[in-house]
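Morning, I've got a small favour to ask if you have a moment. I owe you a coffee for this, so here goes:

…
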Amino acid sequence: MNVLVAMDGSKYGRWGLNWVAKLPFADPPNVTALHVVDIGALRAPFVAQPVVAGNERFIRDEIKRIEHRAAETLQEAKRLLASLKLNGRIKQEQGPVASVILRQAPKKNGMIVMGSQGLDALDRFMLGSVSTNVVQHASCPVLVVKTNPDSLRRILLAVDGSTSSKKALNFITTRLRPASNAGGQALPLHVTVLHIMPFLNYPELKQAGTELVDQYSMKLSRAGYSSEGLCLLGRPADEIITIAAHQKADLIVMGAKGQGAVARFLLGSVSTRVVQHAAQSVLVVR
C-alpha cells in the first residue's frame, strides 16, 4: 500500500502518521510525508488588496513564517517516520494545497491520509476546506483524521449496496488484517455493518436492507472479523454520526457515492457530511 500523508505542521499531520502506523495493513505501507507550501495564496485578491498601503512587507514576513514552518514540519515528519518505524520519505511541493495533494496521490494501490483542519484559523480561511475538496475528487481512498489513534478496536462500516460500499468492504477484507496490535497483543477488530433506510413504509425495503447487512457481515466473518449488522430508518449521514458515537467506534469506513444518480441526489453528499461532522476519523473509499 502506497500512502500519502499530508503534513502541515499541525497535530493532525502527526496524527495522520500515527494512524498509518496503527492501521493493521495486510502489507507494510510505503509512506510519503508531503508538505505543501502555497505562497500564491498570500497574494490572492482577498489578502493582497492594492488599496492597502504597505501590505507587501507583511506578505514578505508571512512568507518567511511559512518557509520556517515548512522546514520544521519536514524535520518533524522525518523524526516521526523513524520513531514509528515506517518505511518512507519526506517531500515538499508548492502550489494550491488540495490540487497538489490530488496530483501527488498514489496512482495505484494508494491511499491519502490528511487532517480535517489546518494549523490555525488563518490557514483554514486561506486554504478553504482542503479535506472536503480532496475527498470529493481523489481517485483513491482518503482517510480524514479527526483524532489520535489511541486504539483501533471498533470500525463502523456504512453501506447501501452501491459499488462504493462494496469497495469499502473489500478494503477492509483485503487491505487490512482482522486484528490490530496494541501493547504487543493482537486484538480482534469488530466491525458494525450499518445500513440506513429511508422513511418509506415498504416491507420489501426492510427485508432487502436486512439481507444486505447480513451479506456484508457474513463476508467480514469469513475474513476473520468479529461482526454485527444494523438496519435502521433515518437520514443516512445523521444516523451514521449518531451510531458511531453510540458504539464508540474508532473509525468510520464508507463509500464515496450512493447507489445511482437518483440516490445521490436524494441523499445529498452523505460522505462529505459525515467527514465534516463526525467526531471520529473517516475513511472514504472509491
Notes: The first helix runs from residue 11 to 22. The CA atoms of residues 41 and 126 lie 7 Å apart. The longest strand covers residues 30-37.
